[in-house]
Structures are given as structure tokens and as C-alpha cells.
Write a structure and sequence with these properties.
The protein is α+β, with helices and mostly antiparallel strands. The protein is built from eight helices and 15 strands. The protein has helices spanning 2-18, 42-63, 71-77, 88-103, 131-139, 170-184, 276-289, 291-299, and strands at residues 20-28, 31-39, 84-85, 146-149, 154-157, 189-194, 197-201, 211-216, 219-228, 233-238, 243-246, 249-252, 266-273, 305-310, 315-317. Bound molecules: adenosine-5'-diphosphate (ADP) and magnesium ion.
Amino acid sequence: MKFLYLILLFFSSYSLSAQQVFDRKLKLMGSSFEIIVVEKDSTKANVYIDLAIEEISRIEKLISSWDSASQTSEIIRNAGIKPVKVDTELIQLIERSKRISELTDGAFDISYASMDKLWKFDGSMTELPTETEMTNSVARVGFENIIINKENQTVFLKNKGMKIGFGAIGKGYAADRAKELLILRGVKAGIINASGDMNTWGKQPNGDEWDIAITNPLNKNKAFAILPISNHAVVTSGNYEKYVVFDGIRYTHIIDPRSGYPATGIISVTVFAPKAEIADALATSIFVMGTEVGIDRVNQLAQIECIIIDNDGNIHKSQHIKIN
Ligand code: ADP
Ligand code: MG
């Protein structure tokens, strides 16, 4: 009995040490993605990485509002005209998005997208939008005007000019799906990194948890916290990558759907959650809600934590984050 036990132990530790980390970086959904899997050999690892990429590309085709062939574009083209029949998967994503809008009092709203003509973060903006432009644009925003008919499997944007966009939730959703798929295929550990939005499962080959370093954007070289993340998602939204500056004021790419103005006061929000989708959406929402409301809301949600860095460089944490 003892002998058998020893052999088993030997085999298990042998196979454990043969595990390696394989990774691939590439552009998906207009962002840089990294797929990491823990496997024994590279052939297998590559098959799994290909699978994850296929899954993320499939989702991109469904939800992209740039791709005129996507079902999302079809919904937008028919705004104010007629309901459009779409896949259940898209209906469910829109339903969950609407639920997050309710949870955040409209700070998160996929119909913010009708304002994407006013605010551009590709260097093409030359002046601030006028008051009239803003008023007209905000009038088209409103998640309650995204009408879902489950029986007919349709989505209808009630008003002409309405738009939807999954910029604040799509990467998280895709990361969750890719992770689920690989777990289903038997991949024991890995990370889907959607341009800094991390979604992990399992452990490193040496048996340690995956760790994540949290940095202050004002001092990127020095991590102020290193936290273990196993089977968890960590998503950061920051105002330091996409923004425009007018008269010395920085306008970020996260917009308050209720005012039409970019959210102010926060530099970065990091959200920890069991799923990347909710972490992604909440990180964007907290930017809009602001520090106080954001922390308060997170403290009411089970298994969700956040770290906020405000404009003055102050660090705010939700109740279960333990850092010095
Ligand atoms: P990133 O994609 O840069 O990581 P976020 O996840 O915070 O950042 O998403 C920001 C994107 O979400 C914007 O570029 C825009 O497409 C979209 N967006 C902006 N404001 C809102 C909002 N209030 N609700 C929903 N989506 C938004
Ligand atoms: Mg987001």
C-alpha cells in the first residue's frame, strides 16, 4: 500500500513539473490579447490556443458595430424601423447589459454608442461638441428603449439614430467564453488577457497561484500591491490611454450616458470578480459613478471588489481588499 502511494506521488509530481506555460499574443477585437495555457507539450497547447482565438473571433463577428455584416450592425441599421431577429447569445448579452444599467442607475449603458460621433479618441476631434449636439445626442441614449422580444428572438432600438456598442463589456464576455471553452476541453490552467483584462483559472506549473501586480498609472514602474488571483477576473479601466485634451482638460473615452460628458475624477478602476464580463462592465460603470457611489455599490455586491485611483493619486478600496 505504502509502495503504491509513493509511486503515485512520484508520478504526480513528475507530471506536475513537466507542465509549462505557453502563450501567444495577437490582435483581436481591436485590442491586444494574450492567451496563456499550462500544458505539457507545445502541439497540444497550440491547438488549445487556436480554439480560444476562434471563439473570441466568433464573438467579435457577432457583437462588432464596425463590422457591417454583424447582427449588431443589423440591429443598429434598423433603429426606429423594425425589430431584428438575432442569435439567443446576443439577446442574452443585451439582457445582461440592461441589467447592469439598472444596477448602476444608467452609468453603464450600451446605447451610449449614439454619442460616438461626438467624442472621438483617434485624434480626429478638433473642438468640443456644442451644447445642441450634446442634447440631441443624449436624447438618443436610453437602455429602456432597447426592446427585447424573447418569444420572437428580436431586438428593437425604439428611436431613430439609436445605437448600441459593446466596448465596455465585449472583451470581458469574450474572455469568459474562451476560458470556459478551454476548461471544458480539459485545460487545467491558463489566463486570457484581453489588453490587461485578466481572466485566470488553475495554478502556475509550480503550484503557485497566479499573481497580479496592481500599479498606479502615475507611477507605473512600481506595483503597490501584488494580489493572488485564482479562477478570477481582474479588469482595469483607465483614462490614460484613450482621451482627448481641450484647454488643458482631459476628456476620457468613458462617457456618462446621462450627461453626454466624459467621466471625470478617476484615473483608474480595477475590479475583481468571478467573471470578466461583470468586472469589465463594472470598471467602466464605476468610472462614471465616481469613487463614493462606486465603492458603495461594490460593497453591496457579493464576490466583487475594487480599487480606485482618483485624480489626486489617492487609492480607495472596497471593504475586503487588504493592501497597505
Ligand atoms: P477599455 O476598452 O479601454 O479597456 P472600458 O472597458 O472601460 O475600456 O470600455 C470603454 C469603452 O466602453 C469605450 O471606448 C466605449 O466604447 C464604451 N463606453 C464608454 N462609456 C460607456 C458607458 N457609460 N456605458 C457603456 N459603454 C461605454
Ligand atoms: Mg469595461
